[in-house]
Design goal:
This protein has one domain. Helix content is about 75%, strand content about 0%. The protein contains ten helices and no strands. With about 250 residues, the protein is mostly helical.
Length: about 250
């Protein structure tokens, strides 16, 4: 009996990407609604308090809500998706195929990111208009934005396969989202936070994502961007490695 050889990685990715995109094509309206309306309301609400503090504080309101949208929609949807696939047996089916786990996670993340991208653009443009901030989009934004999403994809997949039910996984995801938004200078400037919260923020990928996004959409670029890149890339490797160890699989 011949053993079926795995497809090249790029073909595995493309096939899985099309599967994931077709599975979620019906959910783009809900994704667009919750990924657009909630962050814009957050910008409107927080901006009314922070307007007197100047453009620096308003930059945290804008970018912090972009990160919040990534956490609630991108990471949250991936948590629910992988938790459902675990319960429904879809992961067992994929495990019988000659594909890699990390390719499946990357394909799911890309599909969700593409569906979420229009909301991200609307929140960025609409939030800047509400807060009267001038955008300075740097070409590095095309690399930074996906890099900010990838660690959240790995974390989402990890939480999705680590709990017994989708409800437990979603609850843990919401708790983690709140923690990542409240520790560190994500929504609030560091000079308005207690020192211990600022220091705790260095443990959260949301802090580095917010810092990188502020630099590439509002400017200016600083040497801090190199640190943000390195930490986010490290978070991608760590989270994907943890999922690789946690997810039951029979390598093809």
């Amino acid at each position: 009996m011949k053993t079926r050889l795995p497809l090249p990685l790029h073909l595995q990715y493309w096939d899985l990407f099309l599967i994931e995109l077709s599975n979620w094509r019906w959910g783009w309206r809900n994704l667009a609604l919750t990924g657009t309306v909630l962050p814009l309301f957050g910008i409107l609400l927080l901006g009314s308090f922070a307007r007197e503090l100047g453009a620096y504080a308003l930059s945290f309101v804008l970018v912090g809500n972009l990160v919040m949208a990534l956490l609630f929609e991108h990471m949250g949807k991936l948590i629910s998706h992988f938790a459902y696939m675990k319960v429904a047996g879809s992961l067992d089916y994929f495990a019988t195929l000659p594909i890699r786990k990390n390719v499946l996670i990357l394909a799911a993340s890309t599909a969700f990111f593409i569906l979420f991208l229009p909301s991200l653009v609307v929140v960025l443009a609409g939030g800047a208009w509400i807060l009267r901030l001038e955008l300075h989009i740097h070409p590095l934004a095309f690399a930074v934005v996906p890099l900010c999403a990838l660690p959240l994809a790995g974390i989402g997949a990890l939480l999705g396969v680590s709990f017994r039910t989708p409800e437990e996984a979603s609850a843990a995801g919401r708790l983690l989202t709140i923690l990542m938004l409240t520790i560190g200078p994500v929504l609030i400037p560091p000079d308005r936070l207690p020192d211990w919260l600022v220091w705790l923020g260095f443990l959260s990928p949301a802090t580095y994502a917010a810092s990188a996004l502020r630099q590439v959409v509002l400017g200016p670029l600083t040497s801090r961007l190199l640190l943000d890149f390195a930490v986010l890339a490290g978070c991608v490797l760590i989270s994907f490695r943890l999922v690789d160890r946690k997810m039951d699989w029979r390598e093809g």
